Amino acid sequence: MRKGVTPADPERAAALEVVHLLREVALRYDLAVGEFARTTALHGTDVRALVRLLDAERAGVEATPSWLAQQLGMTSQATTAVIHRLEAAGHVERLRSRTDGRSARLQVSDSAVALGWQFFGPLLDRLVATTQALEPGERALVKDYLSAASAALA
């Protein structure tokens, strides 16, 4: 094997094998997101925005335009353009903040949620089944690893 492609250290090589599998999962997910974007005439950034907004809702976080800009690593102007596209398509609603009536919060529309489930439902069902096949201790280990890997990438 060429130097630099596979480490000589067997422990590092085994760890990199796991990292490469994680990269493969991320790539396959990104391809699915790209296909969803193409079939719904959305920009990839628009789909990432929808995902982050849904993540916020699940976590009980009030998603504001500035929060979304931070999540996407974009300027407020670019994020405003994303929000306008998503609003025009009927995928996002601007609602009054629950904590500050003067500011807005963003919420994914019911129709966009339904569209997402229509496309991603079968994929998520397969992933859920794969996860449920693990023993509880294995699931906890995978969850801890993925949380740590996400933090390492942050």
Describe how the helices and strands are arranged:
Blueprint: H1 10-40, H2 44-59, H3 65-72, H4 76-88, E1 92-96, E2 104-108, H5 110-132, H6 136-153
Antiparallel strand pairs: 1-2
Secondary-structure-derived class: mainly alpha
SSE pattern = HHHHEEHH
Overall mean pLDDT stands at 93
Basic shape? elongated
Secondary structure: number of strands: 2
Helix residue percentage: over 70%
Q: Please work out how many helical segments DSSP would assign.
A: 6
Which strand order does the major sheet show?
Answer: 1-2
From the N-terminal CA to the C-terminal CA, the straight-line distance is: 31 Å
Low-confidence parts lasting 5 or more residues at pLDDT below 50? none
Strand percentage: 5-15%
CA-atom Rg in angstroms: 19 Å
Main pleated-sheet profile = 2 strands, antiparallel
